[in-house]
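Before relying on records like the one below, remember that each one covers exactly one chain. Contacts with other chains, cofactors or solvent are not represented anywhere in the record.
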Amino acid sequence: MNQAITAPGSLAAYAGVARAPFLLLPVTLVAVGTGAAAQLGMTDLIQAGIALLGMLGAHIAVNALNEASDYKTGIDLRTQRTPFSGGSGTLPAGALSGRTAFAVGLAGGAVAVAVGFYFLTVVGWQLVPILVVGSVAIFVYTEVLARLYVGELFAGLGLGALPIIGTALVQTMGYETVAVAASLPAFFMTFNLLLLNEFPDEAADRWGGRRNLVLLLGRKRAALLYSLFAIAVPAWLAVAVALGYLPTIALAAIVPSLIFLAPPLRWALGSAQDPVPHPALGANVAWNLTTNLVLAAALFL
């Protein structure tokens, strides 16, 4: 990504601050929420499409505002970048200004807010808790939440559980058990997605005033927390099926855990003091996306 950004103001530069490759995540979350609605025979693809637009705006906002803030504080200049952590490198390369990145973030946030207001007219007060938490997660994540040891929690909510529950809500007009059950794996995985990506940035985050769980707990205990949340995903899927919250075919969503979790768990349980291997970081992303996609497919089927 960094090498491809050569022209200031290029499309690649804007894609860089938006962290375009990571925008697959909201697509999978909306798919799971729509699958939950399909379980109840209440799918509305138009509403799902509008929800996806809002989620893309929200994710772009978080990414771009984070890039602008990290460049301003100097964190971006100290990170050891990997393909999965440490920022895109767009601003340090001079491809965009920090002010432009901030404007991109505000534009994405404006789209998310507009979609939120639209759904308020459709769904009503039931949507308010999701919109409030989502707005906090978008606009004060970098400057506040990431400095109060709750960044991972709000990531799990704002880019995990709540998009699934909210996507189902705007189609079914109610909070549904199947949607809540389907949202918990996403909460655990997005929490872990951020947590594991914080390990390579440990020194830069400490220097820049970040307060995250790696710095609070230390590498070994934070890695143990990662392991517990990783194991919670297949465990919850099995429990949810046993209790009848999810259909039996949802057990297929356990398969990505069997395929992708070995590299990050091997590191977390055996060598957390060492740098996280790039294959483990990549497997963590693949686990997240494929689990969501398989669960969405299972709910549709």
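The mean pLDDT is 93.
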